[in-house]
């Protein structure tokens, strides 16, 4: 935004008479508001956006009211500021439109990851429930193998059973869990379809 034109003597010129400054500003506002809105509308093609641009520019001018020399410099500043803000608005809108497909794609990807995380969490829960339903001794052998990473020999030695028994119990556990997960995956898919 352009620098605000001002004169070091302006504050002295107006003294402490803020009431006078307010009346002058209100008159300035009434004289220029509609013209500035029409001017901004020519850039942004939206009455609402044009008014917002003009209002924010007037707010900026009001905040710097003690710096103004005269009506003509303020008017020139207003038109230049409104033009710059309108052009910035158009540039911002163009960037938003150009990036919208990318944003939509990223949102779909994020939702996919979120859905994927939810699906994985549900599958893990189904597997845990299946493990809980294994007979106690089979569950113990399975956990020693899968959760604690023990070899079949280590499990056999720890439980004082044969390696063949460990292999059989792990095989039965896996067969049961495959069946359990398949049955529950079907139910999970139905629940997900219903929730869509």
From TrEMBL:
A Gene Ontology biological process term: DNA-templated transcription initiation
Domain of life (superkingdom): Bacteria
Annotated CDD domains: Sigma70_r4 (cd06171)
Keyword Transcription set for record: yes
Domain RNA polymerase sigma-70 region, residue spans: 30-93
Domain RNA polymerase sigma factor 70 region 4 type residues, every copy: 127-176
UniProt keyword list: Sigma factor, Transcription, Transcription regulation
Gene3D superfamilies: 1.10.1740.10, Winged helix-like DNA-binding domain superfamily/Winged helix DNA-binding domain
GO MF annotation terms: DNA binding; sigma factor activity
Family: Belongs to the sigma-70 factor family. ECF subfamily.
PANTHER family xrefs: RNA POLYMERASE ECF-TYPE SIGMA FACTO, RNA POLYMERASE SIGMA-70 FACTOR ECF SUBFAMILY
Protein name per UniProt: RNA polymerase sigma-70 factor, ECF subfamily
